[in-house]
């Protein structure tokens, strides 16, 4: 039985460009009705936006989330070290915590560039925590997304880097991109149910490609494993409440699921 809604599981197009800051056009403006974030607070509430160079910081002041002029949203830690970055477009952009629950980066023409894929959670908010985590919570404080984890699915065009994971909505299963290169499905008690044969690729990442296949790339960018699902643009990966890993087409038809143990 499916535990995901397809429309909520699909991602927006992304482009991983980290360029030098660009000058802000005079015509630039956030979407109508969006408020400017209170930069003395640790959160971006529903309906609030970050314009280029605006930021939200943790209560302890150690971590700061900055909307960069070139389009990417970056979390900085102590000493100014970049801990996380959204994909960027190479053009001026702003970030909005939308009222329906999505954190979305828009360019100056109000075209969406990237999303956390958390729509359907009206009143959700983003917070920069004192431990350095960047988290989206629902209005009733349920975990929806973080810089380390996705809940329910890995959308088309999104990537799991080493140390990141997708967890089932009930929190019982996690698909973890491990530092040695394996992508592993774990139960809550840390029992492995499935793994890719990629342990000899330290620093690898897993990308749900826009053409439909899940690919693990080595740190040098070489493909070392792939699912047999190419030719299905917009497909996404789901980690379901019953413990299945499934790749679905954009219209929610199951395409592939690995054979699991346990």
Automatic annotation (TrEMBL):
Residue ranges the record marks as coiled coil: none
Top-level taxon in the UniProt lineage: Bacteria
Listed InterPro entries: Bulb-type_lectin_dom, Bulb-type_lectin_dom_sf
UniProt-annotated stretches for the region Disordered: 39-61
Keyword Signal: yes
Endpoints of the signal sequence: 1-34
Tagged with keyword Signal: yes
Ranges of residues in domain Bulb-type lectin: 41-149, 151-260
Record's keyword terms, sorted: Signal
Protein name: Bulb-type lectin domain-containing protein
Native organism: Nonomuraea mangrovi
Lineage: Bacteria, Bacillati, Actinomycetota, Actinomycetes, Streptosporangiales
